[in-house]
Batch of 3 targets.
Target 1
Amino acid sequence: MDGVLTKEANPLQVVLNTVVPAGKVRYTFAASEPGTYLYHSGTRPDLQVDMGLFGALIVRPAGFNSMDKSTWTAYSQPATAYDTEFLFLESEIDPKIHRQVKFGWWDQADTSAFFPTYWFLNGRAAPDTMYPAYAVWLPTQPYNYMPMMEPGQKLLMRWSTQAGTCTPSTSTATTPR
């Protein structure tokens, strides 16, 4: 969502830690168009995004009803109708930066030397990407990376990436939409 303005707390207050601890900072976003959006930290994104402060946001078209498949369109147009959808969120981390933050060395975390060595799909690294969605042993990673569909079904793939480097992933389908 780079370039999309939000109404938020004064960034200077956040940087100077003058927001009351355990207080609240409210961010708002007016969703004027349906689609898949990526949100991330606006305070220090070079560091906080690597630490996991980002996510995907799906904005449904007007009239969407999760209980009525006849309303399942990506953009309120019949050509974007689908039978099933999957969200794929790619990310990556540099463990050196994570170690520096873990030990409280925020000021030494050099994000200009960012060198990721771990890549994630929906918060999971292989082989966890192959386990079923909502696997009880992965409570903080509910979504898998194994879309399943029947022949003839239309699949909506919502693909979003927070990865800044080339990630090792691909999609293979006869007619992906």
Target 2
Amino acid sequence: MFILALRLLWSVCAPALLFVGGARFIGQMLRGDILTFDSDRSGNREIYLIDTSTGLLVNLTQNPADDFSASWSSSGKMAFVTTRDENAEIYIMDLMGRTMRRITDNQTGDYNPTWITDDLIAIEVYPAGEDSEIITINLLNNTRMRITNNESTDYSPAGFRDGRLAFATGRDLNDEIYVFDVYQRNLRNVTQNSLSQSGPAWTPDGYLTFVSTRRGNADIYLMGDEEGEWENLTHHPAFDFQAAWSADHQLAFVSSRDGNFEIYVLQTSTEKLTRITAYQGDDLNPAWFPVN
């Protein structure tokens, strides 16, 4: 079925792909070398597909509104934020069903979708008169559940397939990373220090990474376990953030090390670092296209 989704994507993107070697592009998808990210290179923010080995690029959303913050389910559905309804709402693009549907309708805006399972998504919302909070949406029955209810800001949710939901929060005076288990209903502070932590992301085997200012600048750290040492994965004086992990442990992230925000990929097995984008504006929110 996933191959059918790729065929559909080919039919949607064929006009743009034919002159850049489309067959090879689709082949790369099967090998897991495809990222999405959002960029303002077309005048507004759009979500692009990029072949990380060749740089071949396709505009996936192609809408005059701003589209950003893509997140992929394991079955190839893309949740993203769009302003095509004037304020920021969450849409899901279903490559298999040839559909795109709006799943939120809030005047205050909804942001940062993340998948927990193929039927359960978490987002960042702004209830009237409140700071940001985290809720989940069951896509089968449209049930919403509020995960956080705190006077401080709760933001940047990151779901893992076993039911863990990490997010950043300012409830401890500084920003910390908390993990909520949506099945066991327990909540834990997993960073517990006086520094600023944000931007959680899960490795494919369930370890947590996040951004910390431990060295004075923002780097991406790996937490081997909740009581263990943090490993600095980016160790650069620039601002490194928005981590995204592929199934084969490639780390995509955004960095300001070239003067603006660009996408980089780190091969964690060899420590080889590759700059993926090169644009004078800002490229943000990398997310790996799933491979089953």
Target 3
Amino acid sequence: MKFEIKSRWSMKTIFECELDVKFDNSPEKIRLGEAIKNAVLRGANLSGAVLRDAVLRGAVLRGANLIGANLIGANLSGAVLRGAVLRGAVLSGAVLRGADLRDADLIGANLRGADLIGANLIDADLSGAVLRGANLIGANLIGANLIGADLSDADLRDADLRGADLRGADLSGANLIGANLSGANLIGADLRENLEGVPFIKDIHQTVYNACTVPPDALDMVDWHKCETTHCRAGWVVTLAGEGGKALKFAMGTPAAAAIIYLKSDPKLEKMPDFYCSNEEALADMKRLADAERDAA
């Protein structure tokens, strides 16, 4: 049977194909999914296509042109979308659980309320994207571009945001429990709700550096808390923050708690420290920040 994919803007047919007879009695969303896979296989341009509710579980859509496509409610769990162009696409409510979105272009995409649990978004470009209320539990966002993205009320528990660019992002109400923010750029990010009640460490860089160097064995980057007098960098931050730091650690985990305390204590911090590096690298970075803080006083 012949199946057509139409444009959301003109409603004209932009792709058509013959589907196997085995799909004759399948639901529309199943047939649509098969047509999409056929189109991508043929290198068709699906920009602006109406693909709402399509079933594309595990589909290989690598490098597909889906600019501005309507994928509301689509099931893309486990799909391979590496390098796909989804700029301006509408994916609100879509299921992208475990999907491979490495290097994908999602600039300005609408992913409001999308299920991105465990999705691989390494180096994806999500600048200006709407991820309000999205589920990003355990998602891999290493090196992702999230400049100006709307992540308000998003669930980022245990997400890996190492080296991510979150400048100007809206993180109000976002759940960052267990999130790894090492090396992330959070300049201008909206963390107002996240920072409410967070303890403040005066002269944080000098205070942490001094605690980590006296005595000489006070720093151990292998363990969060080795003993009462030896901690890793993040461990020292939550320890120096007193009871508030302990409470935050209990609620968010040591690395996320330390990151939030750093932001509260130094809102101008350009990049979040690496909480997983060696002792030597950590000490060098702490000294650099401490010296700069002292010189600026």
